[in-house]
Amino acid sequence: MEEIKNETKEQENVPVQMLEKPEETNKTEEKKAPEKTENNEKNTELVTKEEIEKEQPQKKRKTGLIFLIIAIVLIVIIGILSTIFAVINLGNTKIMKGIMIGDIDVSNMTKEEAKQTLEEIYSEKAKNEIYLRYGENETAITYEALEVQYQIENAVNEAYEIGRQGNIFIDNIEILKTWFKGKNIDLPVTIDTEMVSQISQNINNSLEGAVIQPSYYIENDKLIVTSGKTGKQVDEKELLKQIYTILEENNETSQSIEVPTVVVEPQEIDIEKIHEEVYKKVQDAYYTQNPFTIYPESDGIDFDVENAKTILAEVKEEYTIPLVITKPTKTVKDIGTEAFPDRLGTCSTNYNAGNKNRTTNLILAAQKINGTVLLPGEEFSYNKTVGERTISAGFKEAAVYSNGQVVDGLGGGICQISSTLYDAVIFANLEVTERRNHQFVTSYLPAGKDATVVWGSQDFKFKNTRKYPIRIEATVSGGVATITIWGVKEDVEYDISIETKKIATIAYTTQYIQDSSLPVGKEVVQQAGSNGRKVEAYKVVKLNGQVVSTTLLSKDTYNAMKRIVRVGTKPQ
User: In terms of residue numbers, what domain contains 27?
Assistant: First the structure.
């Protein structure tokens, strides 16, 4: 109690001012306190923003990490599934599901099964026909004759490789695509384009209004130049394109094509080139003994080129240019019979001597080539030697092939002489440089052994490839046309024959023509049809009875000759 009292007394003794100070102090502290609170709030706000800014990258890193983990997991899962999928297909030896070749399903087949399936399907198409129509005429060709070849093995290999490229992911994607979308692999096809060229030329030779190219020949002391004529010819590229389209579609057993043609201008007459071909120096005939060589005579032939250009400046169908002919003083006949002692090759064909006009044409053609001498390396041209077949030259109307029919034409029959000469040339072991088969199989020689000629478009040429000169002997008498090649035998002489092989048959078609002069129901066969064919001709060379070589001479296509039947329409 005393202590309490003492404290009270002490307080009582404290001055008033001292007693008030604590209150002021408290007041001051009270005034300052709010300031401390505002600063504290500001500090709190700053700390919160900094913390947020620090937390955001951390959240982003966490989110990215989560996505990365998910991606890794997905990749691992996909990798595992792809590996399992690949392992499953690793032992698969069959073509994947959904794959087709040329619209034929080959899914789940082995390569061998797919190949066999396709070969069975496409082999049945060998007899499919394509009809080529031009004007009122047509010719049929089969896939077999065209030598249609489908590249089955390549297509099967391509199909089999789908899903087997070596990259698991790419392979799996490719397999899945074929499963759901499918895949059709094209089946490439090839044909004998040379046959199409032959057919085109055959049509050109009988096409009405066909283009005629300029040509020339020598007649006595004159150079006869014929100008060309604008006309049609088969558009071979377009025809080939249409044939390929049919083969690729491959839907029907028979289809037809209207043969496309184009109008073309003939080539210009190149008189300077003609001069180079015609010009010859005069040469007397002579021969040497060691070694034995014959050098026959040669007329000197020349003409004035500038004068010829003046003549050609006028628009005409035929031009006559005078030649300067210089005759040799000594001929082969003056040398003696020893000039051409050996028979190198000969051929004979039969003809109907009762057909006077045709016989006349044969005799004229034979006379023009008879006695022709070719030096080693020289080339023979049938058209240039025989000349244009005209009435003024003595040629007559006789049977010729035209537009799929046998009709009369000027110079008919002279192809028998060119064909007979062709065989004799082969037997004499000479080189043929230009030759084409007829449109139809001839009656005087088997298919593959003939040689057609058409003035202005088709020639027969050969070259003397022997060491010594040769001489052509041609005779027409008693129903037999014979051509013999004479010369000098070389150290080694071969026995030569021509062998032919039929590749395909082309069936003929029938054309019916209404005839008001015949009673209803009566039919008259105007032209008997005949099948066409495709053949290969081989030159077989033998020595002492043993075959030395067999060489392909030609692959020839002969059109079928249509059968024409006249059907009566006259009421009875």
Answer: 2-90
